[in-house]
Design goal:
Elements (H helix, E strand, L loop, with lengths): L40 E2 L1 E5 L2 E5 L2 E5 L4 E7 L3 H7 L4 E5 L5 H9 L16 E3 L6 E3 L4 E12 L3 E13 L13 E2 L5 E2 L10
Antiparallel strand pairs: 1-11, 2-3, 2-6, 4-5, 5-10, 6-9, 7-8, 9-10, 11-12
């Protein structure tokens, strides 16, 4: 497992000489207010082995091989399962599945079998990894653990994506509506799509 001790990340270096200080007349400051970033992030359903949970903190981390990272709180049952080496799947669902996603985010697999609580989603066995996946998902990444980085209250589990499932014709940018978590109880949908030349 990687450790943070003795490591000085590049972004912790002092600002370059000549840079003016943060203009405090334009900003208020707060420490430890991670929740202030109401930045929309798609909330997905991650199945750790058989146990599903809602996850908004996730991202791609490498193209070839394709690696995908999820940040999981240490208090979660899923963290316990991941620490034991469980495979996992990342399931991207439509915004109208938000109630089942919230069910997965409210209950713990320590106490209940969440699959019995879901109203509109159902399970299937993943093809290449030892985990369940969601049949109704538009996109699924099957992941085997590649690396773990343990922090203070969360760990990042980086999976090697063994295979991707997708629903043909359903991922078009103009069509797809993902549930976007904006912190606390706030959610939005991508209402309108723009294209820019990049
Ligand atoms: C919208 C939303 C986003 C969430 N994002 C995360 C996340 O990124 N990481 C995490 O560990 N828990 C996240 N959670 C909380 C877990 O889904 C929740 O604690 C769940 O009950 C854990 O289940 P488990 O104990 O079966 O692992 C989120 C919950 C919600 C509702």
């Amino acid at each position: 497992m990687d450790s943070l001790k003795g490591h000085s990340p590049a972004h912790a270096l002092p600002p370059p000489e000549g840079a003016s200080p943060a203009p405090q007349e334009h900003f208020k400051t707060l420490e430890n207010a991670y929740f202030l970033g109401y930045v929309p992030r798609p909330v997905v359903l991650v199945c750790v082995g058989e146990n599903p949970l809602a996850v908004a903190w996730h991202m791609p981390t490498n193209k070839d091989p394709f690696l995908y990272a999820v940040a999981i709180a240490k208090e979660n049952y899923s963290h316990f399962l991941l620490e034991k080496g469980s495979d996992f799947t990342v399931n991207f669902l439509r915004a109208d599945h938000i109630q089942d996603i919230l069910t997965a985010g409210k209950h713990s697999g320590r106490q209940v079998d969440k699959w019995k609580l879901f109203k509109h989603i159902s399970q299937a066995k993943a093809l290449k990894v030892d985990a369940l996946m969601v049949k109704e998902a538009l996109l699924v990444y099957e992941c085997k653990q590649e690396r773990v980085v343990s922090f203070y209250d969360h760990s990042i589990f980086i999976g090697r994506v063994e295979i991707i499932h997708y629903k043909k014709g359903k991922l078009k940018p103009q069509k797809v509506k993902y549930p976007l978590h904006m912190g606390k109880g706030y959610f939005s949908k991508n209402a309108k799509v723009y294209t820019y030349k990049i």
